Amino acid sequence: MSSRESAAVTPVTLLTGWLGAGKTTLLNRLLKEDHGRRYAVLVNEFGQVGIDDRLVKRRDEDLVELSNGCVCCTVRGDLVKSLKRLKARRFGIGPRRSFDHVVVETTGVAEPAPLLRTFLVEEDIASYYEVQSVLSLVDAANLDFALGTKSAVEQIALADLLLLNKTDLIDAPALDARKQQLRELNPVAPILPTAHAAVPLEQLLKPRREEFRLEQLPRANATPVPGPAHGVVSVCLQQEAAVDELKLRLWLDTCVQQLGERLVRYKGFLHIQGIPYRCVLQGVYDLYSVEASEAWPQGEAPNNELVFLGHDLDPAFFERGLRAATAG
Questions:
Q1: In terms of DSSP bridges, do strands 101-105 and 39-43 run parallel, antiparallel, or are they unpaired?
Q2: CA angle, 166 then 170 then 173, to 5°
Q3: Where are the beta strands (DSSP E) in the chain?
Q4: Could you read off the pLDDT of 241-288 as tens digits, one per residue?
Q5: Cα 225 from Cα 233, distance rounded (Å)
Q6: CA–CA dist 40, 74 (Å, integer)
Q7: CB 294 within 8 A of CB 207
Q8: At residue 40, does pLDDT exceed 60?
Q9: What is the distance between the alpha carbons of residues 109 and 17, in angstroms, rounded to a whole number?
Q10: CA torsion angle for 311, 218, 298, 133 (degrees, to 10)?
């Protein structure tokens, strides 16, 4: 359950991936297939996306409307301006929004955390758009090279879904090794192996804000990124005891204040004393939200499951903080 009316909010997927990972291949599928949904795709340059002229209904300087109901527009300068301009477009799909879903393609060298922050701090954007998933495409054949860059590392670490693409170019042992590398960097995101980005679009673009489990992880864990010493780690915590709401917010505020930009992204399920349903934590840098979700699944004991991603994080710091936030 979000604090905003679902009818008034347009879902957003951030599409990340290092250079050559397959983002353009995926976007071409999105714009050409007859999938029964209207997507708005924001890209950096039209030239990289092969839009078939036979599918074009109308073409403006910075926007193309296609016969399957999708639109594609370029990001010129500031992303916020592009989103506002896109919001103002109307294509007869109802009075409250003109498309079903927005996909924002980032440049191959972009880190996703600043983009996530944009959707939280810009009031006009936050009231209309909601990021429901961060999808990162990973080049299975060139993963070791990509891990030599800070941007590629954070694209993988912050993803809600990892699409391990170009698996047709490696053998089975190499595929297992690639999965292990990704799991060490991002212990909670599902990994979908594929070739040519051939995964059903509804699987790629569905909401994933609450889709992760930590059952296989130890009580506290700090996993360093394989490859160059960028200092990025994931810290995962589990605790059955309920937390006190006030103590929880004091702890999270302390994390934000003391860690600064070292804390990149954090999320999880929360068992808050006195609240009969689970709550969802979502945070980027110094901004976080705790929102009501739904009843705990039948047969599942209420518990806290949290993951923190950032630079040079100390798991003991988070473990102490979670214990201090325990109710009672």
A1: parallel
A2: 130
A3: 10-17, 39-43, 56-59, 63-66, 71-74, 101-105, 129-139, 161-165, 191-193, 220-224, 232-239, 263-270, 277-284, 287-295, 304-311
A4: 999 999 999 999 999 999 998 898 888 899 999 999 999 898 888 888
A5: 6
A6: 11
A7: no
A8: yes
A9: 8
A10: 20
